Structure formats: C-alpha cells, structure tokens
C-alpha cells in the first residue's frame, strides 16, 4: 500500500515537474539565442515563398522572416522572392505593405509579385491543367529571380509554404549535417504530422501521422537518436523525399543541374505525384551509386505549423507528448538489433499508396502513452476516494 501511495504522489507531481522544466527550457533558449549566426557553408540565402489567401498569417510570418534575416551575418547575401496569385482576401495588400516594408528596412533585395501570372500568363489554374502542373508553375515563378542574381556562390534556397516557424529553426535547417546535403527539411504539423503524401523514409515508405513517424526500424531509431531536449538541433536523418512546409535546397540543383518543378505521371505508380516528390526524384537521379543515401536529410528538431496557435501547440504543449513517445521508443529500440543501411538499393523505389502509412511501431508507442494517461487518471480517482485514502493512511508507520 505504501508503494501505491508513493506512485500516486509521484504521478501527481509529474505534470508540475514538466511545467517547471518546460518553463526552464524556454527561458534557457530565450537567453541563449544568438544575435548573429555564422553559417558553416552557405554564403548566399535565397528565400522563396508562395502565398494564396493567407492574410491571417502574413503579419506573423513577416515578423519571423525579419528575425531570420537578422540572425544572418552581414556578409551573407540575402534575397526574398514572394509570389502570390488568385487571392480572394487581402493577401496582396498585406504582402506589399508588410513584406515590402521589411525588406526596405533591412536593405534586402527582393522581388515581390502580387496577383502574378504563371504557366503562360494565367492568374488562376485553367480547367484543362492539372493541379500539380499548376503548382509546379507557381513554384517555378517564385524561383525565377534566382537566375538573374549576380552572386550565386554557395547559395541555399529556403522555400517556405504558408507556415509559421521559429527563425532559429531555419538556421538549424541550413546547418543540418553542416550544410552537406542537397535538401533538408523539418516536420510540418496541423495537430499531427501533415505532409504524408510527399515524405518517404529511406526504405521508400510513407511516414506515419504519429511518432516515431518512420516505418522502418533503422530510420525510426535514427529519428529517436536525433530528437532530444539536449541533443544537437542540426542532426538529420537520410530520407528519400520530404518537403514539409519548409525546405532548404542546395542552389546548384537549380543553377548547375537545371532541375525545375514539374509534373508527370509516375512510371512506377501510374498516377500523378506531387511536384515536390518529383523534385526529390530528380535530385536522386543526379547522384551516382549509393551517394543518393545522404542527399536528402530530414531534421526532426525543426517544427513548422499552419497557423500561430498550431505552432505554439506543436512547439510547446506538444513537446510533453512528443518527447515521451520518443523516449519510450528509445527504450523499445534497445530490444532490436538494427544493422546495415536498411535502404532499398534503388533511389527511386518509393511506395505509391498512402494507405500503407500505418506504422505498427507508432501504434505500440501511442498505446503505451495513452495507457499511462489512463493509469494516471485512474490512480487519481482512487486517491480521491475517502475510503481508499483512509486505508492507505492507516498503513503508514
């Protein structure tokens, strides 16, 4: 009985301890965020953004962009390209006003196109054109100013969707694997991991909605090793494809290799695939032998979200659930002997059906987590029962 009393008290103190720890970590991060960051590799940064009907996030996004540009040293070249089209709200006006004012204040060269035309002069997708073909054109429109830059040495492209992000997280993406990658991305969220259609693990399978996301044991174990409150924020794991709302791309893929966003019917899947997934395939095609394995990196420490409230939920409140799942996963992973690269020998071998994204490992970890929550609630109900409390107290020495 004394043992049960002690367990109950510890369970009651656990949420308080977590809140105190979370506040402590937040304060530590706030006081330890550098004013300027020296990048390991990149000398020029090109930020590309596509927006459509996003008036609610533009003020916050502009503020965070300002914070990101301010983190970069003065000798780093900077450029901002924004392309909007077919807006039914005040996106165009806000972009011109807020982002225009930001680049003017910071002295950053830019190309801001509002209500722009793409795919041969259209402001909206023609009925005869597929959605993917249109999205590829719109992304290429945001990239067009890149080819007129005078200085493109060691250039990184930071491509953003309509997401809210931590400015320092974009630095972590740039610094993933010390900048030695062709693409790096984080994780994007609504309430759960979002970009399931594009992301593929090193085995070619889709990711799962819940931690540890990757379905193969090797990728899952590497994800868990990369994610921890005290671990390096620049650790990345190899994947076959990702986009996830925020991505950094080695500029040579555009400037030297001539890769562009495009659409096609996948010869493997027989269906149309995302323009982002096709972009990944084009990068992997240019890698010889097994060099493709290290071409695309996913940094699980970088989190973006589609809205301010969702960002804070996933960045702060979700951390309790996020890290607990990963810690349980680390423990379970010790039971497996994972050897070899675990990757399919073909760089372009990827699963076609998103229905296969259910991970048994995720289900086990989520089940353990919610079992712990149920145990916590049940023990509190028992503790609040007067008869139970009296019995326990009478057994105290």
Topology diagram in text:
Layout lengths: L1 H31 L11 E8 L6 H14 L5 E8 L6 H16 L3 E4 L17 H13 L11 E6 L6 H9 L7 E7 L27 H10 L10 E2 L7 E5 L1 H4 L19 H11 L10 E10 L2 H26 L26 H25 L1 H9 L3
Parallel strand pairs: 1-2, 1-4, 2-3, 5-8
Antiparallel strand pairs: 4-7, 5-7, 6-8
Question: If you had to describe this structure to a student in words, what would you say it looks like?
Answer:
With 397 residues, the protein is an alpha/beta fold. It folds into two domains: 1-32 and 359-397, no CATH class; 41-354, Spore Coat Polysaccharide Biosynthesis Protein SpsA, Chain A, CATH 3.90.550. Helix content is 42%, strand content 13%. The chain contains eleven helices and eight strands.
> What distance lies between the first and last C-alpha atoms, to the nearest angstrom?
12 Å
The secondary-structure class comes to alpha/beta
Strand order of the largest sheet: 3-2-1-4-7-5-8-6
The gyration radius over C-alpha positions equals 23 Å
Q: How many strands, which pairing sense, and closed or not: the largest β-sheet?
A: 8 strands, mixed
User: Residue ranges: pLDDT <50 for 5 or more in a row?
Assistant: 1-14, 333-343, 355-359
What is the CATH architecture annotation of the largest domain?
A: Alpha-Beta Complex
Domain unit count: 2
CATH topology of the largest domain: Spore Coat Polysaccharide Biosynthesis Protein SpsA, Chain A
Number of strands: 8
User: β content, as a range?
Assistant: 5-15%
Order of helices and strands: HEHEHEHEHEHEEHHEHHH
Shape: globular
Number of helices: 11
CATH class label of the largest domain:
Alpha Beta
């Amino acid at each position: 009985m004394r043992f049960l009393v002690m367990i109950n008290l510890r369970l009651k103190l656990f949420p308080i301890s977590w809140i105190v720890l979370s506040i402590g970590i937040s304060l530590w991060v706030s006081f330890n965020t550098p004013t300027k960051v020296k990048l390991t590799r990149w000398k020029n940064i090109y930020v590309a953004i596509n927006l459509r009907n996003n008036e609610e996030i533009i003020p916050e996004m502009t503020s965070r962009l300002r914070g990101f540009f301010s983190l970069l040293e003065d000798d780093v070249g900077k450029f901002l390209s924004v392309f909007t089209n077919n807006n039914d709200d005040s996106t165009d006006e806000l972009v011109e006003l807020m982002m225009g004012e930001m680049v003017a204040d910071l002295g950053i060269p830019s190309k801001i196109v509002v209500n722009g035309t793409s795919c041969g002069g259209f402001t909206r997708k023609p009925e005869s054109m597929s959605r993917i073909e249109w999205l590829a054109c719109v992304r290429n429109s945001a990239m067009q100013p890149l080819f007129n830059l005078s200085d493109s040495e060691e250039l990184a492209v930071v491509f953003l969707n309509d997401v809210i992000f931590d400015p320092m997280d974009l630095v972590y993406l740039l610094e993933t694997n010390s900048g030695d990658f062709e693409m790096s991305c984080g994780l994007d969220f609504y309430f759960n991991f979002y970009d399931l259609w594009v992301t593929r693990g090193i085995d070619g399978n889709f990711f799962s909605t819940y931690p540890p996301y990757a379905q193969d044991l090797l990728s899952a174990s590497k994800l868990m090793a990369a994610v921890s409150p005290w671990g390096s924020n620049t650790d990345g794991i190899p994947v076959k494809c990702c986009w996830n709302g925020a991505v950094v791309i080695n500029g040579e893929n555009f400037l030297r290799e001539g890769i562009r966003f495009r659409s096609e019917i996948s010869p493997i899947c027989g269906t149309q695939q995302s323009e982002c997934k096709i972009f990944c395939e084009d990068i992997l095609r240019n890698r010889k032998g097994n060099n493709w394995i290290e071409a695309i990196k996913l940094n699980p420490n970088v989190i973006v979200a589609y809205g301010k409230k969702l960002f804070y939920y996933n960045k702060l409140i979700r951390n309790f659930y996020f890290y607990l799942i990963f810690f349980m996963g680390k423990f379970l992973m010790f039971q497996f002997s994972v050897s070899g690269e675990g990757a399919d020998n073909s760089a372009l071998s990827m699963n076609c059906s998103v229905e296969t994204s259910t991970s048994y490992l995720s289900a086990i970890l989520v089940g353990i987590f919610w079992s712990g929550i149920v145990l916590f609630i049940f023990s509190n109900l028992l503790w609040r029962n007067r008869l139970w409390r009296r019995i326990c107290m009478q057994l105290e020495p």
